[in-house]
Write the structure tokens for this entry.
Amino acid sequence: MPGIGSTLSRLRTLRDLFERGLKAASGKYQPAASARPTRLREIKDFGRNPGDLRMHVYVPDGLDPSSPLVVALHGCTQTAEVYDRGTGWSDLADRHGFIVIFPEQQPANNPKNCFSWFLPGDITRDSGEALSIRQMIAKAEDTFAIDRSRVFVTGLSAGGAMACVMLATYPEIFAGGAIIAGLPYGVASSVQEAFEAMFNERAPSSRALGGHVRAASSHRGPWPKVSVWHGTADTVVRPSNADHIIRQWLDVHKLPERASSEEQFGRHTRRVWTDASGNTRLEAYSIAGMAHGVPIATADVGATGPFFLEAGLSSTFHIARFWGLEGDEARRFAMQPRTDPAQIATSPPEFAAQGATPIDDILPQNDDRPWAGRPALDPNTAIAGAFKAAGLPVPSDTQQRNSRMVDPGGIIASALKAAGLTR
């Protein structure tokens, strides 16, 4: 049975693969220069905030009473302002009259600014980051007279996975959600399981995936409608995760796996699932050749930059349309892509040529929960393995003997944090 040293070594390899993927996915694009000051304002007093997040909000001028609310969750390495500029959510809010909340992670919580979409303390109802985001929504409802029947959540990557968390833990709050290059709820409960979920093709059964959502609250319906977006060339979060999200919500909505309809937008594909009354409950966009990021159409809304990729199809606009936020202006937008497919942002070929260990050689192939049920290790061995995997000096024998007076779990956690693997 492998010891904690080899386990952490594998974990570090996965982390390095993740970081190379992020670099490759963003390296072709420079951040877009902002022609305007930030449009967002921060609200600091919005509740107990157990997840230690920041709350930013955009409120258009002349907003009607009982306006809709959108919660937009940024991806790793991003901020609220960057996510707004790239997606164009505040611009669309001006056009159609809704409020946008932009929760923001803090580097003290996660060195990559990722939301903690996999940590049990942050993805359980009424705790951690999930509760912080819920408190932001409550603050907006009390401050701006929100229409509580029209609250929505969306996000990219870790933000997309966190959007899944919010839909699962507070389904009674949301009328709809949209997940871009994200992961389903409940497929990871630790750092290593998170990396495996990102890179592994395997997933639990549809029933098990749906069961994660049903177990997250006492809610029994009706359930939010869901929009899923993923690029076919994504090397950071494998496109199979989109299928897992789809199966999760099909099971929750009790819909068949076969789509009710399918349509093409150039090379891109949209599938739609409707309920017995003909109402669309789930849609899924597969963006041909696109790498990890948000598909945008700068002719409509948004700006290109790292993880904001010109696809000729604006996910921001079409998500708002799916939720019924766009009003009559939808008629002005053509449904066909506005960019030559050859110009769509694909995964840079240099990523595959960097000599990374093949992911299938890193991931376990049999046990669905390969990190569970392993025997306890000697604390000294665990501590030495943790420090070695973290690239830190291994404690001497004397230091290890003295460490018996210290919680070894705390030492290992410190080493993981030093390695940038957790907070």
In short: The mean pLDDT is 81. The chain has one domain: 28-347.
